Amino acid sequence: MTRRIAPGIFVFFALSVMTSFQGTSQALLPKYEFRGIWVATVNNIDWPSQPGLPVEEQKREAIEILDLHQRLGMNAVIFQARPCSDAFYPSALEPWSKYLTGIPGRYPTPVWDPLQFWIEESHLRNMELHAWLNPYRIALNADEPIAGNHMIFEHPEWAIRYGKILLFDPGIPGTRDYVTRVVCDIVRRYDVDGIHMDDYFYPYPNGEPFPDDHSYARYNRAFPPAEKESWRRENVDILVKMINDSIKSIKPWVKFGISPFGVWRNRQDDPDGSATNAGVTNYDHLYADIRKWLREGWIDYVAPQIYWEIGHKLADFETLCRWWNDNVFGKQLYIGLAPYKLGTEATVPAWRSARQMPEQLRTLRKYPNISGCIYFSSKHFKRNLFGFQDSLKNSFYRYPSLTPPMEWMEYIKPNPPVKVDVSGRKVSWKEPASTAAVVLPIRYLVYLSEPGKLPDITSGDQVTHFTGETSVEFPKTGKKRKKHSVRVSALDRYNHESELSDPATIKL
Length: 508
Prior knowledge:
Strand content: 15-25%
Number of helices: 14
Largest sheet: 8 strands, parallel, barrel
CATH topology of the largest domain: TIM Barrel
CATH architecture of the largest domain: Alpha-Beta Barrel
Oligomer: single chain
CATH superfamily of the largest domain: Glycosidases
Number of strands: 18
Number of domains: 2
């Protein structure tokens, strides 16, 4: 399977520049780093700016968002395609979202496919697109109208009200089957790079008991009343495993990631917990045993929302980074960051400082198992974040990075590109032969090195281009031209890299 991708991104080509970065490449130019942005559609937080906009205006806004984040150096978009058991794409299972059209169930006119548009435009910019789904939420306000073709009218027994919100009861097997069908429908029909869920499993407590006595009585699986909380955790466990197994059976390269609340458990409640004193935890209040999901291999990445500042008395940012670094069990770890808190009117002094976000990024890069971050949310990068955008563009993300490969998946490396040819400043090659065991390469890396020397492929120092095309052209520099060796490698859908091609000589 191939996909449309923009021409390669120029990074380095002058050996004098490359040499100056030797030994510090991982700090200045990490070859693999997840740089994601959440694009929230619920309540029109990020896109579209308001419901019911003309289609062309919606597309224009989407392109502006993607162009902005491409300029800042992002390589992944987490797009909320299902905020409230509804759809930002044509679906036979769920109604069109009111956040798109203004009315629940109303289709856009002219009919178009926002999810497909976001996928194509993201891939054109060499950015991954992860479809973000809320698993259980039906409505933020249970008293608001719901589309007539919504699943709760076919199965009203699946719905449960908790405070103002309406959600699917996690204790009913039918709801798990239904959510899994929705996920499978997206994975089969769309070229998504990942399926993403956030922290809304069982709802955050509001002081009232969660009203699931009926489903517990019918589906308790022999859990005694004293272990009802364990039953709830297992309900979510079953869903997570079902979704992961289903995704991998359809397209094993599609990642499954979850962005939980930032604290799994406090150490005072569990010796395996973090040195925090959070009033809410995943395990005890949301019944989401994230640590178990990682240990069992049911998710590919975790992106804990560590939305506290460095030095927070109850949930210190670095304390939590260190804990997650030590508890990721070989999967990928991206930290959820909170630029939305930055501002001159912030009540916490740390969030009125230009140093807070850069220092958080520097903290992430200290830990070997932290492979990147995701920012909440897109709209906040349209305002001045104390110059943080400039820090990303000119320093932290000055050079592009690849999203980390899924090394735990069984794989065979793709074959390297062949017939590398140089004509002036243009380098071209042929797509490598595929095998039944290899998902076709979809992107390429171009390397420069001194003549007769192999480039160091463990870092990004000698990468010049990252592209979905089979040719690149180096720009003119006005400097005296020197000979270089140029080699090309192929990347498959897992971001596994081939061996290098045979070298060709180029004068730059």
